[in-house]
């Protein structure tokens, strides 16, 4: 049974544990391969399989990053990983002591393992410490590739910035998604026959490059094909960045509803049109293309 904790001292049941350690942002194919090996090894040893993930991301803290950065929200990551904990500003030795104390650590798994204050706990350091504290260190090579290139969170972030949903989704092993509440917008879309749901998403999550996308919107457990615009609406001199989804064949009120958007493919770049008539004609074409991709 999966449990979720925020700090190590919340763990009540002490038993031998195999631990995967890392940020795991995106829980992409490389992460999934590591976790599969971890779980198999833990089960074979009759040990607990656990994951410790960091939030905020260490790079975001160390480099002082403020722009959108994360591939998945923490809640989505936790739902994929099942367990998580947070430890910061702790020496590598003290950190591992806590793991051994609270988890009865027997095996530590990860990719490029570095932990503790100023990342002093690298692979060699941990191997030496493991000999003293009786745990093994398993640095799994990052050999998962898509299109002859290694899968990584950095690659996925770059793909999102470029709007390359084919590569992003291939690396994730699932469609990239955002989640949020439908809030009031300008209500301009309904005046040209295309009402949209203006989605308020987590401000720290990275979103795809500006443009129009074929998406799947899930509302109250029901999926709907949707043409989604990400951008600033230059035709109407928009300023703020918005995610606006037009749900095909949907009738009803979406305000204050929770919506999950899965991004399937990019239809086109965002561009400025010569007035609302030209914009409407383009949206007609966009919706037809989305319908063909997702329904036909």
Structure description:
Helix 6 runs antiparallel to helix 7. The strands form 3 sheets. A 6-stranded antiparallel barrel has the order 7-8-11-10-9-12. It has helices spanning 29-44, 58-62, 74-81, 92-103, 123-133, 153-162, 165-172, 276-294; strands spanning 17-22, 48-53, 105-110, 136-139, 145-146, 149-150, 176-183, 197-201, 211-219, 222-231, 242-247, 258-269. It has 2 domains: 8-144, 3-Layer(aba) Sandwich (Rossmann fold); 175-294, Beta Barrel (Elongation Factor Tu (Ef-tu), domain 3), CATH 2.40.30.30. The protein is 30% helix and 26% strand.
Which strand-content bin applies to the residues? 25-35%
The low-confidence parts are 83-90
Number of structurally distinct domains: 2
Overall structural class, as computed from helix and strand content, comes to alpha+beta
Physical arrangement of strands within the biggest beta sheet: 7-8-11-10-9-12
Sum up the structure in keywords.
single chain; about 300 residues; alpha+beta; Rossmann fold; Elongation Factor Tu (Ef-tu), domain 3; 4-stranded parallel sheet; 8 helices; 12 strands; elongated
Strand and helix layout:
Blueprint: E1 17-22, H1 29-44, E2 48-53, H2 58-62, H3 74-81, H4 92-103, E3 105-110, H5 123-133, E4 136-139, E5 145-146, E6 149-150, H6 153-162, H7 165-172, E7 176-183, E8 197-201, E9 211-219, E10 222-231, E11 242-247, E12 258-269, H8 276-294
Parallel strand pairs: 1-2, 1-3, 3-4
Antiparallel strand pairs: 5-6, 7-8, 7-12, 8-11, 9-10, 9-12, 10-11
Helix pairs in contact: 6-7
């Amino acid at each position: 049974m999966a449990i979720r904790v925020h700090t190590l001292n919340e763990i009540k049941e002490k038993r031998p544990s195999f631990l995967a350690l890392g940020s795991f942002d995106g829980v992409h194919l490389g992460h999934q391969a590591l976790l599969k090996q971890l779980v198999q090894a833990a089960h074979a040893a009759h040990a607990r399989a656990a994951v410790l993930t960091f939030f905020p991301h260490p790079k975001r803290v160390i480099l002082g990053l403020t722009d959108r950065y994360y591939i998945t929200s923490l809640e989505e990551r936790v739902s994929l990983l099942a367990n998580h904990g947070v430890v910061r500003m702790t020496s590598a030795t003290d950190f591992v002591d806590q793991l051994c104390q609270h988890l009865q650590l027997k095996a530590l798994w990860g990719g490029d393992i570095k932990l503790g204050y100023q990342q002093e706990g690298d692979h060699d350091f941990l191997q030496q410490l493991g000999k003293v504290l009786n745990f093994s260190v398993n640095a799994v090579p990052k050999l998962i590739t898509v299109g002859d290139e290694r899968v990584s969170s950095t690659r996925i972030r770059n793909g999102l910035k470029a709007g390359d949903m084919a590569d992003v989704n291939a690396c994730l092993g699932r469609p990239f998604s955002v989640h949020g509440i439908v809030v009031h917008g300008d209500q301009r879309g309904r005046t040209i026959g295309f009402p949209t749901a203006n989605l308020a998403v987590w401000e720290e999550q990275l979103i795809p490059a500006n443009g129009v996308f074929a998406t799947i919107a899930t509302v109250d457990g029901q999926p709907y094909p949707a043409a989604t615009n990400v951008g600033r609406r230059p035709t109407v001199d928009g300023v703020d960045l918005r995610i606006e989804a037009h749900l095909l064949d949907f009738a009803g009120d979406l305000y204050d509803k929770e919506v999950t958007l899965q991004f399937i493919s990019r239809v086109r770049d965002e561009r400025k049109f010569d007035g609302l008539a030209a914009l409407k004609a383009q949206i007609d074409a966009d919706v037809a293309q989305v319908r063909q991709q997702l329904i036909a």
